[in-house]
Amino acid sequence: MLRLDALMMDTIRSLERKDFKGVDLTKFVLAILVVAGHTHPFKEITNPIFVHLWERLLLLVVPYFFIAAGFFLFPKVYSSPDKTSRLQTLWLYLKRIISLYIYWTIIFLPLTLWYFSHDNLIIEKDVVLFIRGTFFFGENFYSWPLWFLLSMIYSLTFISLLMFINLRVRTIFYISILIFAVAMIFNYLVAGESRNEFLLMLGKIIKYLFLTGRLFTGMFYLMIGGLIAMNQIRISKLAMVLMVLIALTFQFVEIEIISPFLFSLLPITLFCLTVDLKLEGIKNGLFLRKCSTVMYFTHMIIFFLYTLIFRTIPYFGWDAFLVSVAVPMILTPIIIRNEERFPFLKQLFG
Hints:
This protein is an all-alpha fold. The protein is built from 17 helices and no strands. It has one domain. The model has no long low-confidence stretch (mean pLDDT about 95). Keywords: Membrane, Transmembrane, Transmembrane helix.
């Protein structure tokens, strides 16, 4: 155990010295994909092969964000052999994520109220929908990106409980695999493709409570990122090739539950391929890092305002996509220059 802790300490010191420009660039590109997924610039393309590949490409995004978060978080958590210190580090991070979720839920509240004012439902029903959306879906009207934060909150809370009862990091990882499998089962049930009446009813209940199983996927990817950072998982180039081949095979030969489960190999491989990229030509990693965050959290507000003023809601297309990408890129340098004067900006965008 002492040797393991020493290895973790060495890993943390090496992480502190490194500049992960590959991760910064990948998150920036993936943030643009998030915008594309929400604004649908390719809505006119109906070719089934393109649609299938595009949908799978979009599924890489949030898992990569989870892995990156775990990669940077867990070496800090396990930097101390003392359980109390580890839990304190984790709780401080969890507190920050909870605050972030509250802030952004409030920021999106005008959009939510706008939607409620047009949905022709009674106030009591809207209140129920807001509570369900905030605590169980991780989204309300157009606040779709926020489910990432709610999944982080649930995942880190559960991880802290497992750490509190002295479970080792690998045991927590094995539990996360089981929870991830449950999430895949939830997704299958929600799709309503079973012929069993009980399973169909169960799927409707899960859909009403959680929409999908996505909230339960975060823990697995967070743990993967943490184990990679602490050298508890080493994936060779040959293993990465095999992982990609297996994952792609089961995306074209689709098997319920199994294919979505094995898809997880793709974002894991993508992270392993990009985490050590040197990219010496990139001089401003800070812009990429900050812009990916600004774009992720603000693009739906920009999208809403653009369509409200210049189009009609709902509207999707290339113009909305370009505006929703361009405005965050313009805002990012302004935020960087002013976040010391206005600490709230740093709280919102890290």
